[in-house]
Automatic annotation (TrEMBL), chain A:
Residues 315-640 form the Cytochrome c-type biogenesis protein CcmF C-terminal domain. It comes from the Bacteria. Belongs to the CcmF/CycK/Ccl1/NrfE/CcsA family. The keyword Lyase applies. NCBIfam families: nrfE (TIGR00353), PRK10369.1 (NF007691). It is a multi-pass membrane protein. The chain crosses the membrane at residues 6-26, 38-62, 96-117, 124-142, 175-195, 207-229, 249-266, 273-292, 312-331, 352-374, 394-413, 425-442, 448-470, 491-516, 614-638. Keywords: Cell inner membrane, Cell membrane, Cytochrome c-type biogenesis, Lyase, Membrane, Transmembrane, Transmembrane helix. This is Heme lyase CcmF/NrfE family subunit. Coiled coil: none annotated. It comes from Mycoplana rhizolycopersici.
TrEMBL record, chain B:
HAMAP family: CcmE. It comes from Mycoplana rhizolycopersici. Keywords: Cell membrane, Cytochrome c-type biogenesis, Heme, Iron, Membrane, Metal-binding, Signal-anchor, Transmembrane, Transmembrane helix. This is Cytochrome c-type biogenesis protein CcmE. Heme chaperone required for the biogenesis of c-type cytochromes. Transiently binds heme delivered by CcmC and transfers the heme to apo-cytochromes in a process facilitated by CcmF and CcmH.
Length: 663, 150
């Protein structure tokens, strides 16, 4: 019964979203405040209904109600509780429900915290959110309904894919979707503004917090997914350039570009048309990602099931929304006035450079991801575009961007002095090269290029510090005043410095792991040793064990350095009984920011076992850098000038908007 | 420079950058694309030694042999042709005789042995790499037992 109520609530979501998509729009066309006021109410109701529907599905999972087909296919009564809950979105239907829930959540956020928005804009934004909600609610109801029943109900479920039975599943998809779907708000703002035909600096000020929020979540979601793949798959890789990874990375690149171009638009009223286009493109890439992952055109751990009708349906959503948005854009964009002028060497110029490279990089990743699919559907030829392609293109494109990052914040708006900025960065360059030289002296070996990579990373760290120090006036004023000034800096200044610092940290991690990791594949019998990264691993033997829904064999290794035992690690292979599926649970030990990574292979005939040991120097920097970037986004978000509900800023910007309209 | 010249320089720079990126992408494609073959193709397709390809098919039953250390040899078949493969490293958890597999690597000199550096057999026991399933189905190979090809 409760299941049917949940199903019914989902149908009501479709109904409210249709109301939300039509009435407010009619309101703005007829200038009827009563109709416009429907939007927030409908958005909130839609969110509550989606939440209820989602809870019902979760309830079915928690109580192992196998009469629900979706639960039977993806759950098992012996599964630990946390995986029963996270397993709700560990399958196609459930993950679409999570998508819808987060979309409705963002609509409700706009409805609740958008009090300072002009009524017309708010009504239009929520109407566009309503269209997206309606499309996806319809998609779930018609092709991916999680509430279908089975009669008679089976006694036991088929269990969740063991790779997904991990805390990673509880964190990664919600974070990723908060980012992915969060960009829908930017999209809706762009479409709403195009419908109204009025876009000014205030628009950028309203959009930026949403873009920042979505970007921060997406950064965290991608980093979390990368770390999860790293420890769960047992291959020791942290990024595979898998199409599904690319699907989340492309919106991130476009979203990063959007954050920066919205800055120009907010401060200088320039790049209006481009910023609106980027807002559309970013969410279009999110939709494309959803299509790639959910339609079954790719085989991957994320493609749970293949059903052609789903692919066609999402493709239709994709074409309607992207095509519609771009047509509206083409129709309206020529009417937008170009904003402030600036010299090529200026803060604006630097941000344009940033946008040029980031969008080119996103286009490169898009080409590499779609080319095999397009080629196969046109000629039937099967090819694979792998890591070498992406490393060559993306890697090369990033070098000039990373070199330019510390320059950006040092250049003045309108007309900057690149030579002066270069002089101020002299110390940062020196610090970068010196630190890389120290690493070379202490570590030795490795390709020369790697040290330049490290120097680049250190230079970015020093560049961020330089930026803050210059703003605080270190060296020009007394230490006390400089400290006071530093703490008085706006949140966005700290946010910028932190985010750029985080990029530097990630660069250091990527370069160190790529250039200096060592891999040892050896056959070991109890008592055998292998050394990696200055540590010696001794294999002590195998122990059989049993978990709630799996059996496992674990190898025990003692880790010693200089003859002294410092720690130990277990590395296991599991066999999940319900699906007869084996998985590798790698043994990982952290030393500072570096890790030892041990995974077990096959038994040899003579009692030995194949063991794969990696030394991963500075690998934690990769994800630590992402966390710092995310923190930078959060700090920027709390900048008072950008606070979503700040009424002071709104009144002035509204007045400014009115002024512009009057002109 | 006049304002117009300046603007032209900026636009020219942007277009030049995009052109360079396009050339880079094309060069990278020519260097790093791996074509997919099943063993039956290899009699007619001329794949020179050292060219990187992906080889898909079934692991022939009874051919998996462990050699020195962690080197493994096995044969990949599509029932029309068979190719011997050597691989050094840990095989994926789901690697089994009679199951689908994709090996990535290149032929050693002489074209008789395929040296794989990556072996993929992922995800779950009913999973068959899509490329392999499509091609085997096209060649009329029926798979034994519960194996279903979607």
């Amino acid at each position: 019964m409760i299941i049917e109520i949940g199903h019914y609530a989902l149908i009501l979501v479709l109904a409210t979203s249709i109301v939300q998509s039509l009435l407010p729009l009619a309101g703005t066309l007829r200038n009827d405040p009563a109709l416009m006021a429907v939007a927030p109410a409908a958005a909130t109701a839609g969110f509550l209904l989606t939440l209820f529907s989602f809870f019902v599905l979760t309830f079915a999972y928690v109580t192992s109600d196998f009469s629900v087909r979706n639960v039977w296919e993806n759950s098992h009564s012996l599964k630990p509780m946390i995986y029963k809950v996270s397993g709700v979105w560990g399958n196609h239907e459930g993950s679409m429900m999570l998508w819808l829930l987060i979309l409705a959540f963002f609509s409700a956020l706009v409805a609740t915290f958008g009090g300072n928005l002009p009524d017309r804009l708010k009504a239009n934004v929520l109407a566009v959110q309503g269209w997206i909600t309606a499309a996806f609610a319809l998609f779930i109801l018609l092709t991916s309904n999680p509430f279908l029943r089975l009669d008679p109900a089976p006694g036991e479920g088929k269990d969740l894919n063991p790779i997904l039975q991990d805390v990673g599943l509880a964190i990664h998809p919600p974070l990723l979707y908060l980012g992915y779907v969060g960009f829908s708000v930017c999209f809706s703002f762009a479409i709403a503004a195009l419908i109204d035909g009025r876009i000014d600096a205030a628009w950028a000020r309203w959009v930026r917090p949403w873009a920042l929020m979505a970007w921060s979540f997406l950064t965290a979601g991608i980093a979390m997914g990368s770390y999860w793949a790293y420890y769960e798959l047992g291959w020791g890789g942290w990024w595979f350039w898998d199409p599904v990874e690319n699907a989340s990375f492309m919106p991130w690149l476009a979203g990063t570009a959007l954050l920066h171009s919205a800055l120009v638009m907010e401060k200088r009223e320039a790049l209006k048309i481009w910023t609106v286009l980027l807002a559309i493109l970013t969410f279009s890439l999110s939709l494309l990602g959803t299509f790639l992952v959910r339609s079954g055109v790719l085989t991957s751990v994320h493609a749970f099931a293949t059903d052609p009708t789903r692919g066609v349906f999402i493709l239709a959503i994709l074409i309607v929304f992207i095509g519609g948005a771009l047509s509206l854009f083409a129709f309206r964009a020529p009417a937008l006035k170009a904003g402030g002028l600036f010299a090529p060497m200026s803060r604006e110029g630097a941000l344009v450079f940033n946008n040029l490279i980031l969008t080119t990089a996103a286009a490169t990743v898009l080409t590499g991801t779609l080319y095999p699919l397009v080629l196969e559907s046109l000629t039937g030829e099967k090819i694979s575009v792998g890591a070498p392609f992406f490393n060559m293109t993306f890697g090369l494109l990033m070098v000039p961007l990373l070199l330019a990052v510390p320059f950006g914040p040092l250049l003045a708006w309108k007309r900057g002095d690149i030579l002066a900025a270069g002089q101020r960065l002299f110390a940062a360059v020196g610090v970068g090269l010196a630190l890389a030289a120290i690493v070379q002296w202490m570590h030795g070996g490795g390709p020369v290029l790697a040290y330049f990579g490290l120097a680049l990373g250190f230079y970015m760290l020093a560049g961020s510090v330089t930026d803050l120090a210059l703003r605080a006036g270190v060296g020009k004023v007394s230490a006390g005043i400089a400290r006071k000034r530093l703490f008085g800096l706006p949140g966005s200044a700290f946010g910028t410095a932190l985010a750029h610092f985080g990029v530097g940290v990630t660069v250091i991690g990527v370069v160190a792991v790529t250039a200096f990791e060592t891999e040892h594949v050896v056959e070991m019998k109890p008592g055998a040793t292998v050394s990696a990264g200055g540590y010696t691993l001794t294999f002590d033997g195998i122990r059989q064990g049993r978990g709630p829904n799996y059996t496992e064999e674990s190898g025990h290794f003692s880790i010693s350095r200089g003859g002294v035992k410092t720690s130990e690690v277990w590395s296991s292979k599991r066999l999940y009984t319900a699906r007869r599926m084996p998985t590798t649970e790698a043994g990982i030990r952290t030393f500072g920011l570096s890790q030892l990574y041990v995974s077990l292979g096959d038994h040899m005939g003579d009692g030995g076992i194949v063991v794969r040991v990696w030394w991963k120097p500075m690998i934690l920097c990769i994800w630590l850098g992402a966390l710092i970037m995310m923190a930078g986004g959060a700090v920027s978000l709390f900048d008072r000038r950008l606070r979503i509900g700040a009424p002071q800023g709104a009144r002035t910007t509204k007045a400014a908007a009115r002024l512009e309209a009057a002109e | 420079m006049t304002r117009k010249q300046k603007r032209l320089a900026v636009i020219g720079g942007g277009v030049g950058f995009l052109l360079a990126a396009v050339l880079l992408v094309m060069f990278a494609f020519s260097q790093s694309i791996a074509y997919f073959y099943v063993p039956g193709d290899l009699a007619t397709a001329n794949v020179p030694p050292g060219t990187r390809i992906r080889l898909g098919g079934l692991v022939e039953t009874g051919t998996v042999k462990r050699g020195e250390g962690s080197t493994v040899t096995f044969a990949v078949t599509d029932t029309i042709g068979t190719v011997p493969v050597t691989y050094t490293g840990i095989l994926p958890d789901l690697f089994r005789e009679g199951q689908g597999v994709v090996a990535e690597g290149s032929f050693a000199a002489g074209r008789s042995v395929f040296v794989a550096d990556t072996v993929l057999a992922k995800h779950d026991e009913t999973y068959m790499p899509k490329d392999v399933a499509d091609r085997l189905k096209a060649q009329g190979v029926t798979l034994s037992g519960k194996e279903t090809i979607r």
